[in-house]
Amino acid sequence: MAVEDIIMKKILPGLLLLLSLFARSQDITGIWRGSFLGQQNKLMQMMGEEDRYKFEIQLAQNQKSFEGVTYSYKTTIFYGKASCKGTVNTVNNKVFLEELKLLELKVLNGNSACVMTCKLQYSKNGNEEFMEGTYESYNSTDSTNCGKGTVFLRKVTTSDFYKEPFVVENEKKKAKTPAIAKATKPATTAPKQPPTRVGTATKPSQKPVVKSTTKPSNKTIEKTKEADASARIVPKAEQADIAPPEIVKKAMVIPKVLANRENELVKTILVPEGTVTLNIYDNGSVDNDTVSVYLNNKLILSKKRLTEKPLVLKFNVDDENDEQQIAMVAENLGEIPPNTSLMVVNAGDKKYEVRITSTEQKNAVVVFRLKK
Length: 372
Known about the structure:
Blueprint: H1 3-24, E1 30-38, H2 42-47, E2 52-62, E3 65-74, E4 78-88, E5 94-107, E6 114-125, E7 128-139, E8 145-156, H3 165-184, H4 218-231, H5 236-239, H6 256-259, E9 262-271, E10 274-282, E11 290-295, E12 298-305, E13 311-317, E14 323-330, E15 339-347, E16 350-358, E17 362-370
């Protein structure tokens, strides 16, 4: 056996293993949302409180590295947006993320903010993708230690804020890929057709038109008129799908704020026939969130501030109105983004609670459907 063959037999299995591990590694480009939880001191534990913040990151991966932004927020206490970068280990799917620079910041009482360094592990369960691990943080002003804790994130398709341009661009590329593959596939089944010659206006099956030199009689003219009139009458079978002009409804103009923003379906609720009552509150601390509410694309509440006192709406669901659609539109993001509200639904003897998040890029939609 040649020396080259022995070397290849030893090297090849290692290369195949490396390639298989690389193939299993995932592209983490996209939106990840979850939370991070600080290590609790004994007093907080005794009071049953958690030092938990909501956490969203949007990433764009390029081979083994990535860049992006992070959002950290907790009621009216804190909101921060930071740039970030990191690396992905394509062998063991470990992710290292480091926040770099604060881009936006809102905190109470003029407190300073902290930036985080995260050590995460990527995993996949069916169609669900996750990243979880630990973080350490330090003060962005004087670099003092801010503590550490745990992080949990799940890959999602929507943002609580807005999609960064690199996420939108990546989604466009993915959407185009199947169409390109289909277009470039060679056609093997359809036989080639001979080119059509210019000037062949008459089809082979058509008979040549012969002009009559005999003047038609009056009877013939009358019959021709009757035939033309009957040809313009639509048979009853065809009339079934044609609405008379007097009952054709004008198409409702969709308001610009609904047409230009993403409309995310939050929940569909089956309700019995009757009146549905909505009570809409600020979800959590009152921080000057302002909303407009549309019922079936029609404005019914304009620029109302959410408080602990509910905004009350009523509408009917019945056979004639078997589906009603409520759209919650954020007019601002309050003191701490995003705009959050609590919708309490009373329908018959049933009561539902729907927690709603809307932004200046995304409306929240709740559909009420008649339960038959």
